[in-house]
Amino acid sequence: MTPRDALTPRAPFPERKLTFTADPVTVAAALAAASDAPHLLYERDGSVVWSEGESAVVEADGTTARLHGADVEAAELPAGAHPLAAVGELLQRHTGGVGSAHGWIAFELTHAYHGGDVPAGAALARFVVPEREIELTSAAAVLRAADQAALDELEELLRAAVRSAGEPPGTRVGVDLEEHAGRYRTAVADTVRAIRAGELDKAIVSRSVSVPLEIDLPATYVAGRRGHLPARSFLLRHGGWEAAGFSPEIVARVDADGSVTAQPLAGTRALTGDRAEDAARRAELHRDAKEVYEHAVSVRLVQEEMNAVCLPETVRTEEFMAVEERGSVQHLASRLRGRLAPGRDRWDALAALFPAVTASGIPKRNALDAIRRAEPGERGLYSGAVVRLEADGTLDAALVLRTVLRRGGRTWLRAGAGVVADSDPERELEETREKLRAVSGHLVAVSRAGVPGGAGASTGTGSDTGTGTGTDTGTSAGTGTGTDAVAVGVLS
After folding, report:
1. Among 59, 133, 155, 249, which one carries the catalytic annotation?
2. Taking the model in full, what pTM does it have?
3. Closest CA to 205 of 97, 366, 360
């Protein structure tokens, strides 16, 4: 282990602020499409941050957290029983708390916290201190890079992205929503028997479907974002993973003042686009005993997890069983908030709430056993988290659902449903179809020339094989062409 005083924290990046009137989503996606470097696009509450490059990397497996990079003195810590704390310690040593970072957490990291065999070798969490980044809102662009020359280069990249955002991509790619349907019914039935036998209360059982053609991830991201109002969205490429996601909920948010927020979603009905039909399904959600029970026990566990790291008297359910629309589906949604207890930090809060109860089950240890019996292979990034860390200490972790995933030359979608004692295998299968359609209707093929089609959304259709057409159900977040959108000069 390298001693603390051997590491030199980096200085804060200089910033350049420019006026900006284009669409942040399409411009950030164009930046990603033009990049050969590792990157993350992360959207939250009207702000889109595109981070590129790796000045330092912290990776954790089941035994060790390691800091490394081209110009970084390597260091490591035992992962122990709290790998995320080791990750946080190494990031703090390197940055001194200056600047932002981002990363991802695989679902299997949960075994380090809740028991079970932790997969050997491969990284289960990977965090990056970027070399440069651009933060975009509807009014401004803030550029951060190592020096003025690097800022000049970054500004040129931004101008090029503004010019290219909106070029038409390829046609849509269909998928077979019935892939592994029979195996999924069997897995749900087996899990129901385990629940009725008293082994657990709830488990989220998932299945994957293959994407048969090569897709343009930045174009898919923009097309999907136009069909969603997600809690968070992201476009990721680093550490062997590529993903475009439209997260329906957060795992956790920890603000700089120690405020902790969680937002469990459980209970699902399809959105059809017909206002009367959707209202009827929304009312049905609140009347369905199975859906209400599934949601209530999830909220109860989140409250218990927050009590473990927050001052218990501060933990409140601020919103209970509201309905949130997320692309092709609507969910029962609650929001809980508390304040960190003395001696606890953002990594403790994330560890307490990870994996999200709405992607694992109750109790989590028993649910993990049920998931391993029900699902072949590891989940990887699916139902893990994509995390953004701000310089002020804020942590924002998006749950990796409604996501197209690519790794090792394979591309796929995955969706699950919450299984409880009253679950019906056919209904849970239909719920996975409903969730898969949130992404499957927006997959954009790489152009026949082999060049990504750009960041704009296609008007092509391309229906899913199986039930439903996978058509868009939402509207665009903005379509500004932005040819002259970036102002010349730095604003005061």
Report:
1. 249
2. 0.88
3. 360
